[in-house]
Amino acid sequence: MSFLDLARNRYSCRDFDRNRAVSRNILSGIIETARLAPSACNRQPWTFVVIDDECDASCREVVIESYNRPWVTTAPAFIVACGNHEEAWHRASDNKDHTDVDLSIAIEHICLAAADEGLGTCWVCNFDVDKIKSGLNIPAQYEPIAIIPIGYPAPDATIATKNRKDIDEILKWGKF
Q1: At what angle do helices 24-35 and 99-116 cross, to 10 degrees?
Q2: Residue 48's closest CA among 37, 38, 62, 35?
Q3: Helix %, strand %, coil % of the chain (to 5)
Q4: Residue 1 pLDDT more than 90?
Q5: Which residues of 44-74 are buried (b: 16+ CB within 10 A; e: fewer)?
Q6: What are the residue ranges spanned by the domains of the chain?
Q7: Is the dihedral of CA 159, 57, 102, 134 positive or negative?
Q8: Which of 61, 31, 66 is nearest to 46 (CA)?
Q9: Quick one: which H or E segment has residue 65?
Q10: Contact indicator for 27, 53 with CB cutoff of 8 Å
Q11: DSSP character for 174?
Q12: CA-CA distance, 174 to 110, in Å (whole number)?
C-alpha cells in the first residue's frame, strides 16, 4: 500500500486479539524502523523495552498496572519508549531539549511499521512513570515517554472514524 494509504488506515487500536502473539522477528523488525528514524544531530537518545509473553510475567503486570484500563490487558505485547535527556541534542539559542521530538518521530515509525504488518498500536502517554521506571529497572537518566500496546486487532475491533481538520485549516503558504 502507498504511504498515504498507510497513514489513512492506521488507527489507535484499543482491542487486540490476546490469543495471537506477535513474533519477536516482527517486533525486532518494527524496532529496526525506529532505529532508522531521524533524530536531532543524529543523537538517537532512545531505548525501547519490549515486553511480550516470553518475558517475565511481572513485566507485563507492571505495564498493565501503570495504565489501568481494561482494554490494555488485551495487548499481547508492549513497547516502552524511553528517552535519555543527557544524550539528546539541545538547541543553542534556548536550550530546547529534543528528546520528546526525537522519540515522537521514532514512535510514529513504530506505529506505521506495525500497521504495515497488519498490527494495531496505540500511543499511551497517561501512565504511572514511577511504576514503569521501578518495575522495569529503567536507569535514572532515562524517561519513559510512551507505552505502545501492540498486537493483531481483535476480529471485531471497532475502528473510529478519523476526525481531522481540513487541509485549508492547517496549510499556510509563505507566511502564517
Answers
A1: 140
A2: 35
A3: 40, 20, 45
A4: no
A5: bbbebbbbbeeeeeebbebbbebbeeeebeb
A6: 3-170
A7: positive
A8: 31
A9: helix 57-66
A10: no
A11: S
A12: 32
Contact 120, 79 (CB under 8 A): no
**Taking 90 as the threshold, does the pLDDT of residue 112 lie above it?**
yes
CATH superfamily of 3-170: NADH Oxidase (3.40.109.10)
If residue 147 lies in a helix (H) or strand (E), which one and from where to where? strand 142-151
Q: What is the CA radius of gyration of the chain?
A: 17
Instruction: Please report, to the nearest 10 degrees, the dihedral formed by the alpha carbons of residues 100, 1, 117, 127 taken in order.
Output: 30
Other C-beta atoms lying within 10 Å of the C-beta of residue 16 = 26
DSSP, res 73: G
pTM beyond 0.85: the answer is yes
Write out the H or E segment, with its range, that includes residue 83: strand 77-84
What does the pLDDT look like over 120-166, one tens digit per residue? Answer: 999 999 999 999 999 999 999 999 999 999 999 999 988 888 899 99
